Amino acid sequence: MIIDFKNADVKNLENYKQKAMDAFNTLIEKKGEGNDFLGWIDRPIDYDKNEYERIKKAALKIQSDSQILITIGIGGSYLGTKAVDYAMKNYFGNTPKTELIYAGHQLSGQYLNELIEYIKDKDYSINVISKSGTTTEPAIAFRLLREEIEKKYGKEEARKRIYVTTDRKKGALKTLSDNEGYETFVVPDDIGGRFSVISAVGLLPLCASGIDIDQFMDGFKEAREEFKVNDFEKNTAIQYAALRNMYYENGKSIEVLVNYEPKLKYISEWWKQLFAESEGKDHKGIFPVSVNNTTDLHSLGQMIQDGQRNLFETVISVKNVDKDIEIKSDEENLDGLNYLSGKKLSYVNEMAMEGTTIAHVKGGVDNLRIELEGINPKEIAKLFYFFEITVGVSGYMLGVNPFNQPGVEEYKTQMFKLLGKEGY
Ligand code: PA5
Question: Is 194 in the pocket of ligand 1 (CB under 6 A)?
Fold first, then answer.
C-alpha cells in the first residue's frame, strides 16, 4: 500500500506537524479521552490465540454443514465483515465456501421476509453479533430468525448452529447465550464496534466464507509496524491526519472517498462509519461521503468538479487486478473505438482515474491517493489499520473523543418513545 500526496497542496503542512504529533502521542500513549477503547492498536500481535483457533474450528463446522451463514449485526458489528466479504467475492455467481448473508442492519420487514424465503430450502447457521447485546435491529432479527432455525432443525440442532459474538460478561444476548448454551465469542472490552473487524466480530464470518484470516491478521501486523512509528516524516497516517486537519481549517469540510473498482464499495461504507462516528461531535467534523467511479462521474462528478469548493478527495486505486479484458480491433469501427484496440480495460479505467484527478485538481479539489497493491485480505487489513490510526489522530486534533458515539442514542430515544418502550 502506497500513500501519495503529489496532487495535494502540502505547502503549509509543516504548520500542522506538531499538533499532529501531539495527537499521535496522545493516542499511542493512551493519554486521551476514550483511552479505554484502544485495544485495537496492539491487537494484531496481542490477541487470544485460543479463541482464534476456536474461530477456525467453528468456521470449518459452518462450512461443512451450512450453505449460508446469516450474519446478524449493525454498524461496527456488520460493516467490516461486509466490506471484506464484498471485496473478495466474485461479482457474479461464484459462491464462497459458505455464503454470507446479512440481517439486523436495518428494520425492513420486506427484507427479512425475502431472506426467510431465500433460506427456506438451504442449510444455514446464524452468527449474531452485538457488543452491547441490546441493539434493537439485530435483536429483532435474531428473535425472528431463531424461530425459523428452531422450526427447521429443532431446538437441539439449532443450538449447534447458532454462534454468538458479544460482550464477555454483560448484555441481553450474553444472558440468552448462556441460558441456551450457544458457542460464544467475545467482543473485547477495549475495542469499540467500528474498530472490531480484527476480533471475532469479523474473523468468524470471514473465515466461514473462506477468507484467509491468517493473511488478514498479517496485514494488520505489517500495518502496525508501519503506522505506529513515532516519526512524522515516515508515518503517512500521521501526515494524512495533519492534511485532513489543514483542509478542514481551510473550509474543506467534506471528504470524498473515491474508488474505480466497484468491489471496494463497502470499504467506503465501513470508512464512512469509522470517520462519521469518530469525528462528528460537538458540531465539528469532516463529513465523509463516497463515490464509485466511473459510475458516479456521471452523477456526483458534476458537483465535485463544479460545485461549492468545500471538499477534498481521497482516491483508492488498485495496482494489480486479478482479471482483465482486452479491447479488440473491429474492422468496421462504427463505434469509433479502434483507438483503444489492444488496450486492457484496466488501462482505460486507470486513464479515467488520472484524467479525473487532473480535472479535479484544476477545478480546485485536492486529491490524496492510496494505492493498494491488489485486492486481497492483507491489503484491506492494512488499509483498515491506516484509517484507524488516522481517525484517532484526526479526532484528537479536532478536539473530540474519537472513541465514543453519543449522537447515536438520540434517534433511539425518540424511536422508543414512539414505540412505547418502558422507561422512555
Ligand atoms: O462503532 C460502534 O460502536 C457502533 O457503530 C456499533 O458497532 C453499533 O451501534 C452496533 O452496536 P452493538 O454491536 O452493540 O450492537
Answer: yes
